[in-house]
Structure prediction request, 183 residues.
Amino acid sequence: MPTPLILLIVLGIITVDFVSIAPSPAATDAAHIEVYYGPEDVPGDRLVLLYDHAHQYIYVAVYAITFPPAVKALADAKKRGVDVRVLTDRGQIADPKQQRALGILHAAGVPIRVNAHDGLMHLKQVVIDDDINTSGSMNHTTSGHRYNDERFDVITDRHLSVKARKKFLALWEDRVRFEEWTE
Prediction:
């Protein structure tokens, strides 16, 4: 039952009832966030570990993907039956390292789509098994892992991960803005 609060005001007495406000269930189940800064925290190592522990799916939306351990981990995940998909930027596919990485993924059976629209596919997001999603500035490149000033966030939260999955799949299914990559 609300507790009345009595306020004395110059012109009289006013009684105000405050309704107790309970936090929503989402507010009490806070997300767990790990923050890695490159290069000192070697964020690519954490990324590879996430790929190695995926069970159902790994959905990658990243501007550039050339970091050999990440590419290998994605190909290995596909081989063990994980649904792996990659969205990347068409402007990056002219890079020989990107071509090599996409060729390895494609040979492993990973479907790849690139943007067909004028803007960049500039996300740096991974969603894994509706439990984990990542964000930050880091591309999945050796420079992003070892040389650049980067941030890589690992977010463990089902609600946020489901939202990230839905966004990824909306982009994936958008046949106007994204097209299949072929060698």
Helices lie at 25-28, 43-52, 68-79, 96-107, 142-146, 158-173. The longest helix spans residues 158-173. The chain has six helices and ten strands. Residues 24 and 30 are 11 Å apart (CA to CA).
